[in-house]
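#struct-help
A.M.: can someone run this one for me? Single chain, 585 residues.
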Amino acid sequence: MARTVARVIVDALSELGVRQVFGVVGDALNPLTDAIRTTDDVEWVGCRHEEAAAFAASAQSQLGDGALGVCMGTVGPGSVHLLNGLYDAAKSRTPVLAIAGQVPLTELGSDYFQEVDNDALFSDVAVFRATITSPDQLPQMLETAVRTALGRKGVAVLTVPGDVGDRELSADRPARFSLSPAVTRPEESAVRRAAELLDRAERVTILAGRGARAAREDVLALADRLAAPMVLTLKAKEGFEGDGNPFQVGQTGLIGNPAAASALHDADTILMLGTDFPYRDWYPEGRTVVQVDTEADRIGRRVPVEVGLVGDTGATVRDLLTHLAAPPAGTDGARDRGHLDKAREAFTQWRSGQARLADPAHDKGVVGRIRSALDNRDHDIRPEALAAVVDRVAADDAIFTSDTGMATVWLSRFVEMRGGRRLLGSYNLGSMANAMPHALGAQCLDRQRQVVAFCGDGGLSMLLGDLMTLKTQQLPVKLVVFDNRRLGMVKLEQEQGGLPEFGTVLDNPDFAAVATAMGITGIRVTDPAELEDAVRRAFAVDGPVLLDVLTNPEEIAVPAKPTVEQGWGFAVAKVKEVVRSHGDG
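D.P.: on it. Structure tokens below:
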């Protein structure tokens, strides 16, 4: 008996090892969701918003180190709603297959009810997009879509019109997806040139990104050979932070620290490994730069590069190690480690200062009492303290997600990616509202593993409806809400630019009470003295929990190298805010 288009697609997903498909049911998807209903090893996860479904699929793909995530959206608005989550996958360079519904074939191009041109809609986000117009285009079109997504690490969109999904194929065959990943190496002459530059350098700093994570041991060996401090991008925290790495000095950029900024500034040579760190202002000028990346178009697009090595980071680093000059006979081969030691000492001092900020009793001193009186926030909790407590309480194999903004700042500074911890966020697209749906997708992969979402109050409220998905699926995600009643990062940006805070205040509900009304355990914390106990209670619950912590909206993250202009801007903004509030009185 011939199989239908829907049956072929779902059987192929099962063969690929896809365990969940995320979406919202509806008309054109009915044949597909019915095929999932009758398939034992593929689960339909019904979401309340397709954007959340796409974020969840993106999370599963990233945690699977390039496995295929799958989401679905039905005709018109359902497919449009997928876009933001799909952009997250595209910017994260992770393979996701989106199956989009469409009006019946006979109505295509007639401006039919809900008709949207999907091939045009997804043209910017997808590396592959096509509409099935005949059952006999399968399984080849599906194979091409999946291979393209996997091979190019991007989004493939397959559109299925409403009258096509239940049609039978005339010549059915199993889908085949064999695709072996390529391991590339740069030309040997380029490796030799890079090795010569590194041998001559007196002070090398490594800037390590996500692309270097799989080559951890090789990169550590190279850092030791070069006596080089390692500055980490946010995505490299997972691979290089903790677990006995004596070279890392944290992040640079707006969420970074002075030690990392100085490690880059003090270097005469910078070695970029698997990173496309985009912020040009944080690269020092006039340094010799060697860059390693699998993609040729990334070489030199952020900072001028002396030698670009196009290849797999692990293979390239191993080649570099063999080409670096051998230590002189009769010596221990050690380079001068002054540059490394200075960076590490500065990093240690910075962390000690941060630890003091994370002490819940920090604001009980004279300065703290003055601040509380001026802010009229006697009981607001320091966000640093919340992040630090979560770091202590969370499991060493927990998966963390974070919303874009201040929640990510506090996670980057106070949560260590030790042990088998994983980290997800919209760190390339920079979308709001990603932490909770990312956590949804992560928890579906393993319901026994701890998943912790660092949620901003603005981000959480954007896709609040999908709290019900956590409840319906009984996913034991721990949602930690940094409830500062603000769009905190926007507030900081305004004030650094000398503008008074405007439009950032959020009239929030009691999120814990909202969660409780939805059937989820809700815990609200307003007193610093109750913080640690509340976090431990939340993490002990066997099921989903929303921990709503009222944090101080005046708490800011100072950039790694603040400028005079930023300081003056902040001061001017505060004066304007005071004048405005007096005038409003």
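A.M.: thanks! The two ends are 78 Å apart (CA to CA).
D.P.: also worth noting: Residues 8 and 166 are 10 Å apart (CA to CA).
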